[in-house]
Specification:
eight-stranded parallel β-barrel, binds pyridoxine-5'-phosphate, TIM Barrel, alpha/beta
């Protein structure tokens, strides 16, 4: 099964926002990522718009030729934006308002009703839905009960442990991916994936449909350039 690379362009927006102008041009960068081989573009608009802005998300939609994935905490403004833009996929993430980045998956037991209602609204617009979850087989099974199409496995714990003991690091993720397959949920993954740990993750989880990668990929691009970096990441997924 092929695994798609979706490039998270939030970091490019962060760089642009540092000066208040339009350098680098976020929209052009997204189009270029696709041109260089990315099979999707991910954005994570936060209510304070400190990275990608809501206006960027609206402007991106007609420009993109690949899969558009909007991820974020389903607060009212986020859901309104998603329904207006109608991307291919919306990934629901329980990130706290003041968190630097997403740092946990959903507690679906606690939020099941809210998630089920939210997913129903998105699915009525034919938007594929994915839930950001920890590598926990029980949580994955619960995700299926919400009506979600996919789960995105939160890979920060994998990345943190990979450097010490990769077999141990991947074990829960293999179990979670198997649980997802058993309940017919697709599997995406993201967070702290990089050129060192990506190929092993992909090899151990053959059902992996998509990875969304931002921080490491954009950092690598400082050294290798965006085009070569995307090629390097695509090579890890082959
Ligand atoms: N998936 C989700 C839900 C995220 O919040 C992020 C970070 O914004 C990523 C994937 C990508 O993580 P990274 O920037 O570490 O590649």
């Amino acid at each position: 099964m092929a695994t798609r690379l979706s490039v998270n362009i939030n970091k490019i927006a962060t760089l642009r926002n540092a000066r208040g102008g339009n350098l680098p041009n976020v929209l052009q960068a997204a189009v270029d990522c696709e041109h260089f081989g990315a099979q999707g573009i991910t954005v994570h608009p936060r209510p304070d718009e400190r990275h990608i802005r809501y206006a960027d998300v609206r402007a991106l939609k007609p420009l993109l030729l690949t899969e558009f994935n909007i991820e974020g905490n389903p607060v009212d403004s986020f859901i309104s934006l998603a329904l207006e833009v109608c991307p291919h996929q919306v990934t629901l993430v329980p990130d706290a308002h003041n968190a630097i980045t997403s740092n946990t998956g959903w507690n679906i037991k606690k939020h099941e009703r809210f998630l089920r209602d939210t997913i129903a609204v998105l699915k009525a617009k034919n938007i594929r839905t994915s839930l950001f979850v920890d590598a926990n087989a029980d949580m994955v099974r619960r995700a299926a009960d919400t009506g979600a199409d996919r789960v995105e496995l939160y890979t920060e714990p994998y990345a943190a442990q990979y450097i010490f003991h990769r077999e141990k690091a991947i074990a829960d993720f293999i179990r979670a991916a198997q649980a997802a397959q058993a309940v017919q949920l697709g599997v995406n993954a993201g967070h702290d994936l990089n050129l060192d740990n990506l190929a092993y993750f992909r090899r151990c989880i053959p059902s992996l449909l998509e990875v969304s990668i931002g921080h490491a990929l954009i950092s690598d691009a400082l050294y290798f350039g965006l085009e070569s970096t995307i090629h390097l990441y695509l090579k890890q997924l082959r």
